[in-house]
């Protein structure tokens, strides 16, 4: 199974939470997912950060990692440093 298929399976499972069962069941499942989402999101970010750090430690440049992930080399640096896009947006909003 390739990466894209694994990601698709996760997204399909999320879609099924909102499609299968009666409204009460769907509402409960989706609420449970949303309750867990912040922690799950943080775990995924941390796992990505570790993988990107490993790529860089193995000698891959920020630019190459960026090409692999479809992000800028500056974003790669931010990922390695643990900076989130949300934090940057919040800081910009505070400065307005």
Instruction: Tell me the series of helices and strands, N- to C-terminal.
Output: HHHHH
Low-confidence stretches: none
User: How many domains make up the 3D coordinates?
Assistant: 1
Q: Count the helices. How many?
A: 5
Main sheet makeup: none
Q: Tell me the overall shape.
A: elongated
Number of strands: 0
Q: How helical, in percent, are the residues?
A: over 70%
Task: Give the mean pLDDT.
Answer: 89
Q: N- to C-terminal separation?
A: 46 Å
Radius of gyration: 17 Å
Strand residue content: under 5%
Name the structural class. mainly alpha
Give structural notes.
The chain has 96 residues and is mainly alpha-helical. The protein has five helices and no strands. The chain has one domain. The longest helix has 35 residues. The relative contact order is 0.06. The mean pLDDT is 89.
Task: Write out key terms for the chains shown.
mainly alpha, 5 helices, 0% strand
């Amino acid at each position: 199974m390739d990466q894209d298929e694994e990601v698709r399976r996760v997204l399909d499972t999320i879609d099924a939470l909102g499609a299968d069962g009666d409204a009460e069941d769907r509402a409960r499942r989706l609420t449970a997912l949303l309750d867990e989402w912040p922690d799950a999101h943080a775990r995924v970010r941390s796992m990505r950060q570790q993988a990107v750090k490993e790529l860089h430690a193995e000698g891959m440049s920020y630019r190459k990692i960026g090409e692999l992930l479809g992000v800028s080399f500056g974003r790669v640096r931010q990922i390695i440093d643990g900076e989130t896009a949300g934090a940057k947006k919040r800081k910009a909003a505070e400065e307005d």
